[in-house]
Write a structure and sequence with these properties.
The chain has about 110 residues and is mainly α. Helix content is about 70%, strand content about 0%. The longest helix has 27 residues.
């Protein structure tokens, strides 16, 4: 398999983002020289930082009891989105997470 078709690191990036939050994609972004893996790490970081903002908003909304529902919905969305992104990365597709705020631009 050639280096251009290797999808192991991009798939690992999205799985790590689900398991470790923003730390896994950040380490991959800083440690690798592979442009494709860096782009996937940027997408995963955008989603995880967006999730962090959404979780803080949900915790504030817990005072009016809506936050419990939104926090549960965010947890489910995080699992689903990370799995979809990992599958797309395995197929060589750069998938943008829905609802993610673009903190890092793709190169």
């Amino acid at each position: 398999m050639t280096k251009k078709n290797d999808t192991t690191l991009p798939v690992l990036t999205h799985i790590l983002s689900w398991l470790t939050g923003f730390l896994g994609p950040l380490i991959i972004l800083l440690a690798t020289k592979d442009k494709n893996a860096k782009n996937h790490a940027r997408l995963a970081l955008n989603w995880q930082f967006s999730m962090l903002i959404y979780v803080v908003i949900s915790m504030i909304l817990m005072f009016v009891f809506i936050g419990f529902l939104t926090l549960f919905a965010l947890a489910v969305m995080n699992i689903i989105f990370c799995i979809v992104a990992a599958v797309k990365a395995g197929n060589g597709i750069l998938w943008k997470y829905p609802m993610s705020i673009p903190f890092f631009k793709q190169q």
